[in-house]
């Protein structure tokens, strides 16, 4: 079994057929024809490398805040909430997290929307520009994917599309140090993503693996110019189980690894339940869940910063 390739630039009927096959069979695919310029990706990885190379004190100056923005040091996140395998050791990775920018005087902050707030930026020339440019380039790709999935699932009433009118977005710049035989733990322990759509850019080091329906771990190799896309738990619920939220992990290698994960999710107040077109004869396969409440439970179980 290999990871499917879906060309977003192909005929729409062909794209929908490819998405239906990839996400009904494996839950992962390499996405090409997405239109994100190579230079924007290269600039992001250069910015990520520069940030992770800073002295620890400089990175801790923008350490993760209560709104889940900023620097996440190595070995501080443990996937205790994983439905795949409860982690016994922290993830062996460090990262920088940005989300949708919400000014302190924005309507989202005034409304008390969970995690709404401004981003935290290091004192690093060109970093913010490179990160925001990449975030902006991924937004239309993600919106196009939402539109495609809406068609695939038969969202005639526009319920799915409207949930992303004001999306929740996350961009996580990850750095995995070389494997250390004296330290337990995965680069990222086996887990399912809790949101909707993940678009991942990765270097050529490797280490990302996805669990096949047959129970084997399949390598997800980097392809030049491609983004790895997978479905999370919320889209799995919306589709009534039709689209798979598949377990995956990162196994540390002898070389350090960089990746950039862009997560595209509905507004925090969205109630997620199977679309009418995805409800089987026996009724919904999943009970309704408010996305923000679900996110809160996941973050509180994974990060000490959010607990209590």
Which key features would you list for this structure?
globular; 8 helices; 28% helix; alpha+beta; 8-stranded mixed beta sheet; 308 residues; 4-stranded antiparallel beta sheet; 21% strand
Structure description:
This protein is α+β, with helices and mostly antiparallel strands and 308 residues long. It contains 8 helices and 14 strands. The strands form 3 sheets. It has an 8-stranded mixed sheet with strand order 1-2-10-7-12-5-4-3. It has a 4-stranded antiparallel sheet with strand order 6-11-8-9, with no helix packed on it. Helix 1 links the parallel strand 1 and strand 2. The longest helix has 27 residues. The protein is globular, with a radius of gyration of 19 Å.
What is the fold's blueprint, element by element?
Blueprint: E1 5-7, H1 12-25, E2 28-32, H2 38-52, H3 56-60, E3 70-72, E4 94-99, H4 107-110, H5 127-153, H6 159-162, E5 168-176, E6 188-191, E7 197-202, E8 208-211, E9 217-219, E10 227-231, H7 233-238, E11 248-250, E12 257-265, E13 271-272, E14 289-290, H8 291-302
Parallel strand pairs: 1-2
Antiparallel strand pairs: 2-10, 3-4, 4-5, 5-12, 6-11, 7-10, 7-12, 8-9, 8-11, 13-14
Helix pairs in contact: 1-5, 2-5
